Each structure stands twice: as C-alpha cells, then as structure tokens.
Amino acid sequence: MIGKVSGRLDYRMGDHVLVEAGGVGYLVYCSERTLAALPAEGTQVALYTEMVVREDLMQLYGFLTLAEKEWHRLLTSVQGVGAKAALAILGTLGPEGTSRAIALGDATAVKAAPGIGPKIAARVVNELQDKAPAIMALGASGARRAMATAPASANTSDVSEPVVVDTQEPAASSDGVAQADALSALVNLGYAHGEAAAAVASAEGDDASTLIKAALKALAPKG
Asked: Which domains does the chain show, CATH number per domain?
C-alpha cells in the first residue's frame, strides 16, 4: 500500500498529476480543488495517497491533508459512491465543506457535486453523520499543529510538505487542547464563537471528537 508520495511534480492534467519520486513516476488522481492548490510543475510536492484496486485497474488518489484522505475513504464506503464520485464531492465542497454538510445533515450541499443525485446525497449524510466529528477533530488538530510548526517568517513561495498529523498519538493531550480543537471545528461549521464556546464548555468528553459530537447535539435546533 502506498500511503504517501513525495517528489517532483512532473506534469498535471485535468484530473491527475505525475509525481516523480526515486526515478519512478506515480500517476495520482486528485480533486479539482487539490489540483488547483498544488505548486508549479517542476517543484517538490507531497501527497497523501489512497490506492484503489479492482480487477481491471489499480489507481492512486492523492490528497493534501489527512482529513481530505479520510473523507475520501469514508465517502467510498457508502454504497454507490466510487473513488471518482468521492473526489467530486471533495472537489466541490473541500474537506471542511464536506465536514460541514455531513455534520449538519445538509444533503443539498452534497448533491451539488457533479454526478451525485439526491438519493446518494441523502445516503452519504445518513451513513456518515456520526463519523463527521472524528474527521473534524483531525482537521482542527492538523490546522493547530501547522500553525505551531510554521516558521515565524514563512515565505509563501516556498513549497513544503503538508504537516503530518501523527495518528498514533491521542486526539488531544489535555482537556484544553481537546476543547480548542472542538471549538475550532465548530467555528469552521459556521457557528458563532460565543455559542460554540458555550456548547463545548457544557459538553462532556475526553477528546475533541466526543466534545464535537456532544456540542452538535446541544446546538441542534430544538423541537
């Protein structure tokens, strides 16, 4: 299994790139959003990857963050959603938008992706809604660690590898960090900082995922 490819971006096409690493060229399929975020051809790039193997083909799919990769894996676990359809959802909504739509039960937003009909969109929301908090926590943790490790005077023209979230560590090392990640995830969903902070403060849990799930229940419309 190839979990990550780091090397020179040789070329990009409409739905994939070729990354040369160690003398081998890896053809990696990406969403439109990911392709647009990649650096210029001839520069270094790093992509987390997921390999999809079928009887008639073997393809690599690439992602800039672990949250994007995890959403692709979860989306393809839904009946009727293939690897390309999952890329279409991520390309339309992005990882955070996908989290927002699924966590809030917004099947209409999922349906906006090319090739995704109302039945598939509803199935995606119904099957993955309970799993959204864990991916939201992963994304919030990655963003926090990226900020913590970024150079004080970063040159935006420099190309660096995505920050790796060590999934072997606990989701949060302290209550304060877990609450901060939960709050960040809820604010990204569109909740006001004040109401999100109050929901997190009243929630019970030892990790960000549990806090997010409890806070979402508290914030859900009553009646």
From this structure: 4-63 (2.40.50.140), 66-131 (1.10.150.20), 133-150+168-219 (no CATH)
* pLDDT, tens digit, 9 for 90 and up, residues 126-185: 999 888 888 888 766 666 555 555 554 444 344 334 433 343 444 334 578 888 888 888
Structure tokens at 127: 């099957």
Which residue do the tokens 């995704």 mark? 116
Instruction: Using CA atoms of 81, 86, 87, 88 in order, give the dihedral in degrees to the nearest 10.
Output: 70
pTM for this model (two decimals): 0.74
CA 159 to CA 43: how far, in whole Å? 7
Cα separations in angstroms, 11 against 38, 127, 157, 215? 11, 37, 19, 44
d(CA 147, CA 142): 9
